[in-house]
Description:
CATH class: Alpha Beta
Number of helices: 3
Strand content: 25-35%
Number of domains: 1
CATH architecture: 2-Layer Sandwich
Amino acid sequence: MASAVGELKRILGEFNSAYGVSMSAIVSRSGIPIAWVMPQGMPIENFAALAATLLGASEVIYTGMSKPSPSRVVVESEDGVLVVSGLGPKAFVAAMFQSSDSEIDSAMEKVGRAAMDVLKGQG
């Protein structure tokens, strides 16, 4: 798993650089950080728990409405855009973009595919 974590961190680092993302993480559905690229001093545990709570709560709401669960959650503020997107039943990717941009969908799709390739290889 150590090599998978290193590969995920590499993918996240390239993703952050290419799309102006200030922080990103691959997190288990229970909120355990798997791999991340964050600013120095930023507590990954808080970011991971917040993202897991957002995604989990949205899934509960939609289940109560008898609708399919959302594939992602987007929270916009003056300081940026947080996107939390599922990576199957065990993990998700969370990223803080500096601004709302037409490339967010494409960027999240690309990083999600790359992360899934690594995670699938770990069985």
